[in-house]
Amino acid sequence: MVLGLAAPANAGATAPVCDAGLAQFPAVGKQVRVEIADDPAERAQGLMARRSLAPESGMLFIYDSPQTVSFWMKNTLIPLDMVFMDDRGVIRHIHPNAVPLDLTSVPGAAPDDPSPERLMVLEVAGGGAGRMGLQPGMAMAHPRLDQKRAAIPCG
């Protein structure tokens, strides 16, 4: 799939009213209730030691600026899908069903991605991204994105 940035699927529709506790994906009519991890300690802890994760909930990792990121599953007890997004909120890569307790690095971009920097990473329960219909090229609306650059700005 080419990751060109055409008009959002909801072009002409009312912009979503954003809430910091929700990651919204208007193209598929889904929202994820999120905990925010936006400082080094919160990002380091992530979802470690959790024994479950409610459907359509997760953790949104937010960086101060776009950067190359990778994750691992150290001390993480449940399988997770990792949804990597650029600074416009566009999904650039999805790593499905990361294996609990695995220390293998999970990169935020495919090796051939010409722009591997990510601003946000959404973790949801394993298989959740597929169940919600999330795909690379789709955009998320969230108030922590620069609304002048966001693929789907908040209303």
From TrEMBL:
Protein name per its UniProtKB record: DUF192 domain-containing protein
Species whose genome carries this gene: Paracoccus aurantiacus
